[in-house]
């Protein structure tokens, strides 16, 4: 099965599109959703962020919502983070 995140990618920023009067996820948002469903393992849920790891590569990905003024925080983004940043997020608060 093909991966939903390409090897050269380090950040995906989703969006919404108005289609026939309805807001719908754009192609990037759908790729983020498929990557989370098929390619990544959830490591930790946080308020408006989720930490994932690719079990094949060991890479860490952070899902965030940058548009707090929108319902649900807006569309998701997914960015590659360093192991050090992931370790910091995993530290007890």
Number of H/I helices: 2
Main β-sheet description? 5 strands, antiparallel
Strand sequence of the main sheet, in spatial order?
Answer: 1-7-6-5-4
Order of helices and strands: EEEHEEEEH
Percent strand:
35-45%
Label the overall shape.
globular
Low-confidence stretches: none
Rg over CA atoms, rounded to whole Å, is: 14 Å
Number of E-state strands? 7
Coarse structural class: alpha+beta
Overview in brief:
With 93 residues, the chain is of the alpha+beta class.
Q: Can you walk me through this structure?
A:
Helix content is 22%, strand content 35%. A 5-stranded antiparallel beta sheet has the order 1-7-6-5-4. It has a two-stranded antiparallel ribbon with strand order 2-3. It is globular. It is an alpha+beta fold and 93 residues long. The protein has a domain at 13-71. The termini are far apart.
